[in-house]
Design goal:
Blueprint lengths: L1 H26 L3 E2 L2 E4 L16 H7 L16 E5 L4 E5 L4 H12 L4 E2 L4 E4 L14 E2 L4 E3 L4 E3 L14 E3 L4 H4 E3 L2 H11 L23 E2 L2
């Protein structure tokens, strides 16, 4: 009888301790995120080399911050948070699926409070020809959903000089490509084609162009 009493008492103490710890966890104050910046990819390191979509934001808002692993997120997502300014940087990886899954994992994580967060989604749009960064002006004649087609390198095509390296899926052609105003393109292109690249060398970003002269940064 005495042994049963001790066992029951031990179980009660264990249960009470568990409930107390659970209560403390629920009442723990979450870290407030003031701004969440969401680029999709980075082509190299987060600092010090040619920039993709994330590097300039990292260097300006989260310099020196270490990557924080998000529970149940995609293996390619990266999250950084600067506790001094309240700015978070989520690199989701390319594609709608990766962006949706990594963002859902972060927003559902109870370590951070996003109830009053300004969310800024950023990214490059335009073309895959050459290389370009934020500030470059890319003039296009059609808007394409890159995931609803096939992309290949010029070396894999019969015509290695072909300007077309992306091909829509036949079954999704009504959704994957939207033709834009060709007449407007013809009017705008002569206005910007000779625009000089306005990238200041003192920012150390000119290497990102790799000598590309097909895009220009107009200020």
């Amino acid at each position: 009888m005495k042994g049963k009493t001790i066992a029951v008492f031990t179980c009660i103490v264990f249960l009470a301790s568990f409930l107390l710890l659970s209560s403390c966890g629920k009442n723990a104050e979450k870290t407030k995120v003031r701004v969440l910046i969401i680029p999709k990819f980075e082509i190299g390191e987060m600092s010090g080399d040619a920039s993709g979509e994330a590097q300039l934001f990292y260097e300006h808002y989260c310099a020196g911050c270490k990557e924080i692993k998000i529970p149940n997120s995609t293996p390619t997502s990266q999250f950084y948070f600067n506790s001094e300014n309240g700015v978070g940087l989520l690199v989701t990886d390319s594609g709608k699926s990766a962006a949706g899954l990594s963002l859902m994992s972060l927003l559902s994580w109870d370590a951070y409070d996003f109830s009053d967060t300004t969310i800024v989604s950023v990214g490059c749009g335009g073309a895959s020809t050459g290389s370009f960064i934020f500030g470059d002006v890319v003039l296009v004649t059609a808007a394409c959903d890159f995931e609803l087609g096939h992309n290949t390198g010029r070396g894999e095509l019969e015509d290695a000089e072909s300007e077309h390296t992306w091909f829509p899926l036949d079954s999704l052609s009504n959704y994957s490509v939207e033709q834009l105003n060709a007449e407007l393109y013809d009017k705008v292109y002569p206005m910007i084609r000779d625009c000089p690249q306005g990238l200041p060398d003192d920012q150390g970003l000119s290497a990102a162009h790799n000598g590309n002269d097909k895009t220009c940064s107009c200020q």
